[in-house]
Amino acid sequence: MGDSAYSFSLTTFSRTGKLLQIEYALNAVANGRTSLGICTEDGVVIATDKKLASPLVDIDKVSKVEMITDSTGFVFSGVGPDYRVLVRKARKSSQAYKRHYGETQPVSQLVKQTASVMQEYTQSGGVRPFGVSLLVAGVDGDGKTRLYQVDPSGAYFGWKATAIGKNYINAKNFLEKRYQDDMELEDAIHTALLTLREGFEGEMNSHNIEVGVVRNGKFEVLTPAQIQDYLDEAN
Amino acid sequence: MDTVFGIQFKGGVVLAADQSNARSILVYQNNLDKVTKLSSHSAMGVSGPNADMVNFTEYIAKNLALYELANDGTKLSTKAQANFCRNELAVALRKGPYQVNLLLGGYDEKDDAGSLYFLDYLAALQKVPYGSQGYASNFCLSIMDKEYREGLTEADALLIIEHCIKEIATRFLINQPNFMIKIIDKDGVRVHSFGGDPADT
Question: Could you read off the pLDDT of B104-122 as tens digits, one per residue?
Fold first, then answer.
């Protein structure tokens, strides 16, 4: 109704106290391919559906799970090109941290930094918010594993397990039922794959999903062969 | 002219510095504290002009406090603090250099160990088991070379410090009657002894 008159200007609140551009950015995220993450005491797993428009696309060259520091990684749901900008900025800022302190930036600080960038784009002229929500897996300053979600508004949340993108409600319900506080990383990887398969359109295989794992303080993207091993175990 | 030296021992670090504040032929004071506390478990022995000494240490100490405030109480390791200092020195070097030579010592709970870092005004950084800045080096380094061993106790380390101070009192041209000695271990930064009380105005 009257709200729509405020929907085009990012930097103006609507009468009901909303910033509609951010709501619309969240819609873009909800239309994106599903991503999820599970955090356990001995590691973190993040995964995403990599389904693409045509079988002619060289899918192995598409990279959605990205390493930011040697102990943190990102995955996203939403607009891919916006994601790449955030990945670049996060990598650069964590190297700047390394230059200053000689150590790897803890994940909570990386998240705050990235969230701060995303917030800037909700309060500046001539820009629009990033159309992505991020899932960040990593190791914090106290040595513990963490999973964070960062939204287009710049809000961030720590999670034990969560899902974003298409079908996130079903995925989250599935995770809620299966999550246990004393879960181990291997269980979590299996659960993550099962959850992804629940909402998958068509057949899920080791090439049309991507999985990233924080294990022993190091982040790595699993190869299709490694994913296949886990899928075989599940069957 | 400042004498600054330090030794790592098992579970901590000892830092010592003279307490004179002088220029040309005049001694302003004999109770200056040149070993400044940086954070709960680290301190810096500084040599150089008084202005740079104070400006630099206050700047670093407050930035370290800001880090803890901004990051949920996360503490920076001694190595990270030393690297931060070095970066600040490096950036300032080509603009308006800080003419300070430092020995940064700290204790890290993670390793249950002390560590000592040598930094100079050209932004060099080196982790060392023992070190000294200034003319003191000529007298102290050979003593420490001879007497330092891995796994020293706090008492052993203090004996070596005493030995260095005696040597300086005997052989160094400039009279430095008072020394401030501080110890950093799992309980934090504490004053072991001083010649002149810095609180005396």
Answer: 999 999 999 999 999 999 9
| Cβ-based contacts of A146 with chain B (< 8 Å) | none
Q: Mind telling me how many Å the CA of A39 is from chain B's nearest CA?
A: 20
Query: Does the CA dihedral B46-B50-B52-B58 come out positive or negative?
Result: positive
Distance of alpha carbon A201 from alpha carbon A77, whole angstroms? 16
Instruction: Tell me which chain A residues have a C-beta less than 8 angstroms from the C-beta of B84.
Output: 100-101
**Model ipTM?**
0.74
What does pTM read for this prediction?
0.84
Which of A101, A109, A139, A146 to substitute to test the interface with B, most B CBs within 10 Å? A101
DSSP state string for B165-184: HHHHHHH-SS----EEEEEE
Q: Do A100 and B82 touch (CB under 8 A)?
A: no
Name every chain A residue with its beta carbon within 8 A of the beta carbon of B69: none
Q: What is the DSSP string of B102-144?
A: EEEEEEETTTTEEEEEEE-TT--EEEESEEEETTHHHHHHHHH
**Residue pLDDT, tens place only, A92-107:** 999 999 999 999 999 9
